[in-house]
């Protein structure tokens, strides 16, 4: 018996489609339009083809910013993922202290990006900051406004403080989903702590770890507000990441054509690397479950 299909439900999705069109598709088309045209104002455009893209590919400025961005994301992932797993493994599993730790870990995630940058900008100042003044009193030559290494250390520590909680909470959720029967079987077999982690906990956390790595990569690769508030991209260009360089190009210099081409390439790089991450990690996960 044929069932009558009612397609009126699609009208409920129409408002969402309209909102997405105005908030995503139309701005994207505007960026694409600027990336293939040149303009001298008064809304007059002249076809430039792929000229802006060729300029950006050959630009040493973009290569330097991309290198700094890749290095920053690699350092962040190398620190936050193992640290988040370690914290999740040592958090209480139930009771009052479990709830207390969950609330405590969630607090950094609730702070807005610009507030995080402002906190660490003041915290690291040598004259009034607790960190900067404390290090100076100990004889440590620390000044993130003049030394590139100090600026990098400050931004990395700031990001680790802000976002390790996300990885820890995701891993904690994965650990909580493991049935107690697995641990009981491991105790019967007298498995070591490393064996329990390697063969029980880590495979069960693989799904949430995939999400954590993807989220932290995308966020670290697009980071803007925190380092801009703390260092402004300096000293020099030592902390000028792709996002900061893009804003300087578009807003500071008003080079809309190159900035549009830059932003599209930026988006494609994030999309490509995220796809590679997802493909590799899902392949490894499928291989382990077989």
Describe, in plain words, how this protein is organized in 3D.
This protein is mainly α and 290 residues long. The chain is 73% helix and 2% strand. The protein has twelve helices and two strands. Strands 1-2 form a two-stranded antiparallel ribbon. It is globular and about 75 Å long. It starts with 9 loop residues before the first helix and ends with a helix. The mean pLDDT is 87.
Briefly characterize the structure.
By secondary structure, the chain is mostly helical. The protein has helices at 10-35, 51-57, 60-89, 96-106, 113-123, 130-137, 148-176, 180-188, 193-221, 225-230, 242-252, 256-289; strands at 37-39, 45-47.
Q: What descriptors fit this protein?
A:
290 residues; mainly alpha; single chain; MetI-like fold; two-stranded antiparallel sheet; 73% helix
Return the CATH class.
Answer: Mainly Alpha
Largest sheet: 2 strands, antiparallel
Give the helices and strands as they follow along the chain.
HEEHHHHHHHHHHH
What is the terminal-to-terminal distance?
A: 41 Å
Low-confidence stretches: none
How many beta-strand runs?
A: 2
List the SSEs and their pairings.
Blueprint: H1 10-35, E1 37-39, E2 45-47, H2 51-57, H3 60-89, H4 96-106, H5 113-123, H6 130-137, H7 148-176, H8 180-188, H9 193-221, H10 225-230, H11 242-252, H12 256-289
Antiparallel strand pairs: 1-2
Helix pairs in contact: 1-12, 2-12, 3-7, 3-9, 7-9, 9-12, 11-12
